[in-house]
């Protein structure tokens, strides 16, 4: 301690420092946390009064209550249990801090920015009964002391669920706002979409109201036509909610919306980065150009377990499989096919034959057209 006292006298001969800045210079050396209490104790020993203005921080450390009130005010609309505070300081403060530490060879001590955020975090945590999290906080505050303003950024919330669509005529995806092209503007209330007449729109509208989110970015596991139905256990999807205000909302197992139902919607840690493999049961209604000869549909059973090659003008071919197939003739020029297949097979092209081999038109030697296709079951996994 005697060495610290002597170093303190040397510093205070040239610079008038507040208790926070004075204590920070020696806290790590004495293995103490409270910089202010240490500064007060050292000041009493060296018998120096408190300065009216701190040379280093210009009384910033003693006026943090003003900024604490600001982040308390802007945080009232948000739910969170962990947080992190960042700071942008005037370059002159950082320069003075570097000058003192370099001049007196004070190595290994925390910089003033760390002291500001540590002190703010300690006070904010006590007021809100929340904890600092340096790795994955629910919310991040950035205090710009240069511009005298605070910014708040909640962590995105990820949800996973399934949807059922029992009404035809509803598109899966929602068109972006014409004004901002999905970025968010005043016209679309910063949602990126201005209407809610699709599966995406219905899901997004529900989440905006339930979680107070600004935008909803959906990752689809497969897709369907506007005229298709999605039945059974529903189609899986993930949704990333941007700027959510709520994080702990109770969700029922089944959510009934206007034209769709959402099943087992729950919060998860992340959206998978690798492509998700899935199998699906699809019922296709198919029309033919020529009459169907007796027994000709039996040839379609050869599609079972046969590699389906899909060309997309690439140097390689994507191969999928049909695991089961059931065929029912409707009349002389139409029939239905119920297939269990790998996800990712373009159904209409499987029928017509465009860049898909083998295909139904080729096997029947009869040009075919897919009238409708409905999903009866979708199972994630290999």
UniProtKB/TrEMBL annotation:
* GO molecular function, a single term: tRNA pseudouridine(55) synthase activity
Single GO biological process annotation from the record: tRNA pseudouridine synthesis
Q: What is its EC number?
A: 5.4.99.25
Coiled-coil ranges from the UniProt annotation: none
What the entry lists under Pfam families is as follows: Pus10_C, Pus10_THUMP_arc
Output the InterPro entries linked to this UniProt entry. Answer: Pus10-like, Pus10-like_C, Pus10_THUMP_arc
Superkingdom is Archaea
| Keywords assigned | Isomerase, tRNA processing
Residue span(s) of domain Pus10 THUMP? 68-144
- Domain Pus10-like C-terminal stretches: 159-378
* UniProt name for this protein: tRNA pseudouridine(55) synthase
What is the gene called?
pus
């Amino acid at each position: 301690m005697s060495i610290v006292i002597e170093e303190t006298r040397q510093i205070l001969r040239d610079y008038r420092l507040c208790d926070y800045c004075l204590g920070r210079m020696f806290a790590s050396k004495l293995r103490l946390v409270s910089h202010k209490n240490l500064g007060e104790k050292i000041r009493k020993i060296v018998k120096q009064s408190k300065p009216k203005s701190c040379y280093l921080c210009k009384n910033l450390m003693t006026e943090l209550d003003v900024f604490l009130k600001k982040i308390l005010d802007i945080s009232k609309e948000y739910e969170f249990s962990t947080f992190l505070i960042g700071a942008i300081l005037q370059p002159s403060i950082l320069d003075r801090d570097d000058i003192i530490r370099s001049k007196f060879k004070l190595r290994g001590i925390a910089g003033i920015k760390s002291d500001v955020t540590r002190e703010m975090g300690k006070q904010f945590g006590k007021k809100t009964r929340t904890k600092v999290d340096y790795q994955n906080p629910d919310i991040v505050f950035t205090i710009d002391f240069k511009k005298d303003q605070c910014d708040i950024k909640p962590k995105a919330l990820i949800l996973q669920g399934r949807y059922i669509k029992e009404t035809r005529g509803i598109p899966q995806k929602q068109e972006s706002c014409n004004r901002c092209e999905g970025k968010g503007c005043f016209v679309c209330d910063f949602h990126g979409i201005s209407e809610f007449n699709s599966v995406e729109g219905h899901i997004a509208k529900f989440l905006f109201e339930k979680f107070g989110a600004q935008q909803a970015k959906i990752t689809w596991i497969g897709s369907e036509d506007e005229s298709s139905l999605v039945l059974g256990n529903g189609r899986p999807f993930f949704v990333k909610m941007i700027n959510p205000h709520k994080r702990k909302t109770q969700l029922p197992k089944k959510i009934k919306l206007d034209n769709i139902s959402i099943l087992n919607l729950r919060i998860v840690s992340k959206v998978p980065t690798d492509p998700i493999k899935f199998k699906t049961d699809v019922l296709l209604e198919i029309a033919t150009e020529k009459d169907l000869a007796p027994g000709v549909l039996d040839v379609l059973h050869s599609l079972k377990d046969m590699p389906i090659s899909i060309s997309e003008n690439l140097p390689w071919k994507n191969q999928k499989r049909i695991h089961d197939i059931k065929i029912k003739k409707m009349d002389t020029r139409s029939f239905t096919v119920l297939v269990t297949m790998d996800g990712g097979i373009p159904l209409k092209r499987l029928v017509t034959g465009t860049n898909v081999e083998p295909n139904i038109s080729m096997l029947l030697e009869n040009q075919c057209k897919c009238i409708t296709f409905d999903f009866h079951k979708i199972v994630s996994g290999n």
